[in-house]
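Figure 3 (text version): structure tokens given as input.
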């Protein structure tokens, strides 16, 4: 179940008929980028290796799709023609902000141990919801910012104006 805050009818139909829906470029792109980030963390890929990996992941995902929707907002039209460039940009931005080898790493990540746990499932079985967290960082000893020992991170590759409130609620109560 993917949690969302869009049209309730669309969310329900997407959930009930998931296997019948064509893949959208934004979904293919997000999957490829997340898989590459996971490989960077688990396998220690360099930035150059990650750029090649995200292209391979896109090729595989595109090749496995029966139909592909090439649509998006007027501001951010997502198409197969722009998917590779966009994926590389996302990997570059992630590397710059998160990776310990980056000179421009966001300082908050310096307070946490590397590598984080990746693809950690949170389940709320009593109400039938679950989600997968992209990364869980554990604070370095004596460094727990905000009084919290963990930092839950979910990287988004879609529209930055999209709301993910319900997903955050599962993280908060299920973590």
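Below: residues designed for each position.
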């Amino acid at each position: 179940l993917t949690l969302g805050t869009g049209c309730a009818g669309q969310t329900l139909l997407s959930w009930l008929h998931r296997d019948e829906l064509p893949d959208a470029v934004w979904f293919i792109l997000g999957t490829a980028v997340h898989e590459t980030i996971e490989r960077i963390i688990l396998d220690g890929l360099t930035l150059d290796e990650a750029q090649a990996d995200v292209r391979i992941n896109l090729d595989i995902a595109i090749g496995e799709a029966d139909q592909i929707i090439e649509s998006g907002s007027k501001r951010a039209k997502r198409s197969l023609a722009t998917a590779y460039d966009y994926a590389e940009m996302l990997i570059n931005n992630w590397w710059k902000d998160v990776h310990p080898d980056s000179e421009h790493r966001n300082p908050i990540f310096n307070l946490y141990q590397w590598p984080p746990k990746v693809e950690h499932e949170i389940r709320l079985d009593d109400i039938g919801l679950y989600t997968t967290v992209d990364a869980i960082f554990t604070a370095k000893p004596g460094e727990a910012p905000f009084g919290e020992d963990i930092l839950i991170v979910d990287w988004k590759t879609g529209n930055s104006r999209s709301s993910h409130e319900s997903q955050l609620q599962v993280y908060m109560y299920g973590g």
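Residues 1-13 have pLDDT under 50 and may be disordered.
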